[in-house]
Amino acid sequence: MTEATRPQPGFREALRFWARLGFISFGGPAGQIAILHRELVERKRWISEERFSAGLAFCTFLPGPEAQQLATYIGWSLHGVRGGLAAGILFFLPAAFLLLLLSFVRAEHGTLPFVAATLYGLRPVVVAVIGDAVFRMARRTLPSPHAVAVSLLAFATVFLLRLPFPWIVLLAALIGMFVPAFRPPVAATASPTGVPIRAQAARAGRVLALGLTFWIVPWFMLITFGEDMGLFQQLYLFFTQAALVTFGGAYAVLSYVTQAAVEQFHWLSRPEVIDGLALAEATPGPLIIVLQYVGFLAGWNDPGGWSRGLSGTVGAVVTTYATFLPSLTLVFLGAPYVDRVQSLPRLAGALRAIGAAVTGVIASLGLDYGLAVLMPSGSSGAADFFALASIIGAAIALRLGLSLGLVLLGGVAVGFLHHFIS
């Protein structure tokens, strides 16, 4: 089937699909990409296998949630900017509303027995899920001793030295650019875009100008209200930075955010972050929506003169906006040049090294969370062997191929069992 004969949906038909996708996109990035491929390439045939693969490769080059960015790219391919906006926003909007509701429940009723039991059961599952993600990523990102060395270096610098994630990304990128072992064996030939350089530059300038405008307007509103908005200004700046430097998906960004939110800003505790990840795993949409929960808890825990609910809601909205605006802007900026982006060997080498480093960073995150779950009272307290058994059981279930939904339900059941026998 050629591109000329491929069925092209109307915008309303595509809009209905993107709205439905926001409610069914469970399974993390891999599962969401599989859903997009099954629905749009195999069943509806709205996009070719070649274009889908090119779009996926492009999105792995970008910081941010690759599944949501891939949906944005496909929406742009079908209906231009309005299609990309519809696909990108509807991909996370249902999850944003659902997680906001769950955040209220966690913050207001987290000490109730059934809520506490649910969260207790989900925490070990989160640790097992991160471990499974590291295992899967390692098979893809660590094909050589050089990649393994970069991964181990990243793990050590995060876990032992607490080096900020942006510096790790920069160091890995430099290694990948200048160490030949990370470059592809044969560089592809760049495909011409057919658009004059001046027109390309003008288009890129318009996209950047619009992205900056949509960023500056909320920032101006935040600084206009003065000191009462200090926390929200801090959230806006930090999560914008996080969105621009965190390659490797939600687990990588969460490692960086956990390090900063817990140890630097003291917005919330590590167990609270783990609870947020557990809630985000149970919702559809991109896993990076967990950052909204971090923003909510930051506002809830430090409301200033506001009510806790209002402060948490504003924190959630500010965080979500700052997280996804750069993601959308980067897709629109680079989408017309997908073929050319893939043809740069030094860039490809940098991204391979970053991928290896991200695997080490996520392993560090898993170890951090594992220690927090197994030693809830700190290093001086007793180990929770029931939680250890839950981690092992969840890890085995995931390796046997059980769906994440079933494993999460099993974790909830274990949490209630622990509540009744303890």
What this model shows, in words?
The structure is a single chain. This protein has 422 residues and is mostly helical. It has one domain. It is 76% helix and 0% strand. It contains 17 helices and no strands. It is globular. It starts with 10 loop residues before the first helix and ends with a helix. Mean pLDDT is 86; it is low at 187-192.
Topology of helices and strands:
Elements: H1 11-24, H2 28-43, H3 49-60, H4 66-109, H5 113-141, H6 145-159, H7 165-178, H8 197-224, H9 230-245, H10 250-264, H11 270-281, H12 290-301, H13 308-334, H14 338-341, H15 345-374, H16 385-399, H17 404-421
First-last Cα distance: 62 Å
**Which percent band covers the strand fraction?**
under 5%
- Uncertain spans: 187-192
The helix/strand order is: HHHHHHHHHHHHHHHHH
Domain tally: 1
Q: Concise description?
A:
The chain is mainly α and about 425 residues long. The protein has helices spanning about 10-25, 30-45, 50-60, 65-110, 115-140, 145-160, 165-180, 195-225, 230-245, 250-265, 270-280, 290-300, 310-335, 340, 345-375, 385-400, 405-420. Mean pLDDT is about 85; it is low at about 185-190.
